[in-house]
């Protein structure tokens, strides 16, 4: 097993094959166990991120998580928190977390200066978290204790423009909009009830 924070033997074997171990070691020096002020600013300005989880047999799942700026908060030196909003009821990501707490989060800036930040750590779910009473639309809070935080090369990120935020994003004082698919004949008799949430 590798003694690296970032790499395991599979990574190392490919680095050696492609003669990239030296740059990989140099890049690992950018990894850190705690958020910088710049990390915090970037994360808390994000309106989306990608969440990777796996079940107890290692079968992976990747999910898009979106919300208003500030929906992800840095809550400690190595901790962040984000809400779970009403969704399709499959609980693919959070169901995985209940069995395997290891997670990876990827934050990407697609407009302005391209940027990527990765956060790998362990997650826990709380239906009684104090942030529930401060987070419009949240039915649960997920807290992630970062093991390693590292920037990632943004070279393949395209320049894009944000046209409109999602109308389904929870907003203080507003009733949530139900997506059209919930009223489709094939689904409407099986839709789960919305959980009561703080409205702001």
Plain-language structure description:
- The chain has 200 residues and is an alpha+beta fold.
- It has a 7-stranded antiparallel β-sheet with strand order 2-1-5-6-7-4-3, covered by helices on one side.
- It is 17% helix and 28% strand.
- It contains 4 helices and 7 strands.
- The protein has helices spanning 9-17, 21-28, 37-45, 92-99, and strands spanning 48-54, 60-66, 73-76, 79-84, 102-109, 115-126, 140-152.
> From the helix content, strand content and strand pairing, which structural class follows?
alpha+beta
Overall geometric form: globular
| Strand fraction | 25-35%
CATH superfamily: Electron Transport, Fmn-binding Protein, Chain A
Strand order in the sheet with the most strands = 2-1-5-6-7-4-3
Assign a percent range to the helix content: 10-25%
Report mean pLDDT, rounded to a whole number: 94
Q: How many angstroms does the end-to-end distance come to? A: 49 Å
Total of helices: 4
**Contiguous runs where pLDDT drops below 50 for at least 5 residues:** none
- Count of the domains: 1
Reported CATH architecture: Roll
| Main sheet specs | 7 strands, antiparallel
Rounded radius of gyration (Å): 19 Å
CATH topology: Pnp Oxidase, Chain A
Pfam family, one: PNPOx_N
InterPro entries: Pyridox_Oxase_N, Split_barrel_FMN-bd
Protein name: Pyridoxamine 5'-phosphate oxidase family protein
Organism: Oleomonas cavernae
Key attributes of the depicted protein:
4 helices; seven-stranded antiparallel sheet; Pnp Oxidase, Chain A; alpha+beta; 200 residues
């Amino acid at each position: 097993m590798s003694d690296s924070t970032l790499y395991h033997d599979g990574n190392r074997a490919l680095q050696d094959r492609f003669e990239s171990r030296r740059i990989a070691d140099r890049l690992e020096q950018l990894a850190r166990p705690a958020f910088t002020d710049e990390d915090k600013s970037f994360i808390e300005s994000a309106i989306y991120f990608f969440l990777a989880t796996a079940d107890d047999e290692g079968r992976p799942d990747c999910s898009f998580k979106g919300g208003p700026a500030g929906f992800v908060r840095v809550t400690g030196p190595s901790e962040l928190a984000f809400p779970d909003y009403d969704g399709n009821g499959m609980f693919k990501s959070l169901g995985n977390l209940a069995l395997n707490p290891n997670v990876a989060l990827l934050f990407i800036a697609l407009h302005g200066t391209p940027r990527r930040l990765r956060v790998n750590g362990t997650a826990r779910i709380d239906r009684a978290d104090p942030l529930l009473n401060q987070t419009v639309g949240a039915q649960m809070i997920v807290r992630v204790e970062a093991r390693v935080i590292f920037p990632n090369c943004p070279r393949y990120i395209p320049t894009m423009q944000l046209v409109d935020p999602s109308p389904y994003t929870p907003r203080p004082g507003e009733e949530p909009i139900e997506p059209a698919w919930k009223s489709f004949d094939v689904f409407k008799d099986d839709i789960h009830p919305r959980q009561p949430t703080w409205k702001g």
